Amino acid sequence: MLIKRPSDIPASEITPRSVYLRRREFLQTAAAAGVGAALGGASLLSAPAVRAGEPIPDVRPSRLSTDETLTGREDITSYNNFYELGTDKRDPKRNADQLETRPWPVVVEGECEAPGVIGIEDILRDFPQEERIYRLRCVEAWAMVVPWVGFPLVNLLTRFKPTSKAKYVAFETLYDPEMLPGQRRGIMDWPYREGLRMDEAMHPLTILATGLYGEILPNQNGAPLRLVVPWKYGFKSIKSIVRIRFTEDQPSATWNMMQPSEYGFYANVNPEVDHPRWSQKSHRMIGAGLFARKRPTLKFNGYGEQVASLYDGMDLAEFY
Ligand SMILES: Nc1nc2c(c(=O)[nH]1)N[C@H]1C(S)=C(S)[C@@H](COP(=O)(O)O)O[C@H]1N2
Ligand SMILES: [Mo]
């Protein structure tokens, strides 16, 4: 019999401990939810390695894209907020390789008739991928224009049949200190969490992104699956999602929990409501140079025509 020496074992056969543990958790969750084979458990567990930078096939352009000048790929992928990979803007790219994104089961649970688990490969296959060029406006008063690849969140949510009790959707990032070095420090109450009201989640502008510039998402940008809500500050756009839960009550959200006076649950981009420590009236474009003129920030990040009616009758200074 042939005994494989360690050097003969292809990298694809070696399972990092954290991935192994995640598989086990996935199998337990799947069993508890009574899904398992029905949702193609086998393909979930033996997904081929797809890497950042590989092209995503059949990406269709979207009419919901802006026509502004794109921020360069280098800037989008090297100036990041992703505290799980470090708090400096350059840390996420530096630490990106530590995160293993295959296999990547996503649990969908809570107030729905068909809870279950879906793998990233099935997500890429089942939901037609579009290019959506959106402004991303960080609460720190800078912005980018990003050619995301992704699909409307509503397409995924409806598959799991939310009940009439589902008033909100909660999201969670992977918790795995072995692969996410930032989680070895108690700087936040991990995992990173975010949430949307059901109508915000179902809105056609709200997408789950799987790529950018036509290619699989780099880890520092939230691979393999991150939320993008273009009319809200960037911190709502939670990265590396592993859990989606329909809830009756407003879910907890990381920055809102940490500093509620500075970061609201809604976090709609609003030049009329300043952050307590700085103005939100204007922002600088990443990549435009330090001396470039600041741009005026638009209410709802310029998407007011599409989304303002979601907040009819709400005082946006109170519900910031
Ligand atoms: N899990 C997680 N998601 C996150 C963050 C984070 O630290 N962890 N940072 C948020 C913030 S503040 C912003 S501005 C955007 C940045 O996205 P980008 O790095 O792709 O530009 O991601 C958001 N999503
Ligand atoms: Mo941000």
From TrEMBL:
Required co-factors: Mo-molybdopterin
Residues in Oxidoreductase molybdopterin-binding domain copies: 99-255
Gene name per UniProt: msrP
Organism expressing this protein natively: Thiohalocapsa halophila
Reactions mediated catalytically: L-methionyl-[protein] + a quinone + H2O = L-methionyl-(R)-S-oxide-[protein] + a quinol; L-methionyl-[protein] + a quinone + H2O = L-methionyl-(S)-S-oxide-[protein] + a quinol
Keywords: Metal-binding, Molybdenum, Oxidoreductase, Signal
UniProt superkingdom: Bacteria
Cited InterPro entries: MsrP, OxRdtase_Mopterin-bd_dom, OxRdtase_Mopterin-bd_sf, TAT_signal
HAMAP family reported for this sequence: MsrP (MF_01206)
PROSITE patterns xrefs: TAT
Subunit structure: Heterodimer of a catalytic subunit (MsrP) and a heme-binding subunit (MsrQ).
Family indicated by similarity: Belongs to the MsrP family.
EC identifiers of the protein: 1.8.5.-
UniProt remark on cofactor binding: Binds 1 Mo-molybdopterin (Mo-MPT) cofactor per subunit.
Record's function text: Part of the MsrPQ system that repairs oxidized periplasmic proteins containing methionine sulfoxide residues (Met-O), using respiratory chain electrons. Thus protects these proteins from oxidative-stress damage caused by reactive species of oxygen and chlorine generated by the host defense mechanisms. MsrPQ is essential for the maintenance of envelope integrity under bleach stress, rescuing a wide series of structurally unrelated periplasmic proteins from methionine oxidation.
Protein name per UniProt: Protein-methionine-sulfoxide reductase catalytic subunit MsrP
Top EC class for this record: oxidoreductase
Chain residues that bind Mo-molybdopterin: 80, 83-84, 138, 173, 221, 226, 237-239
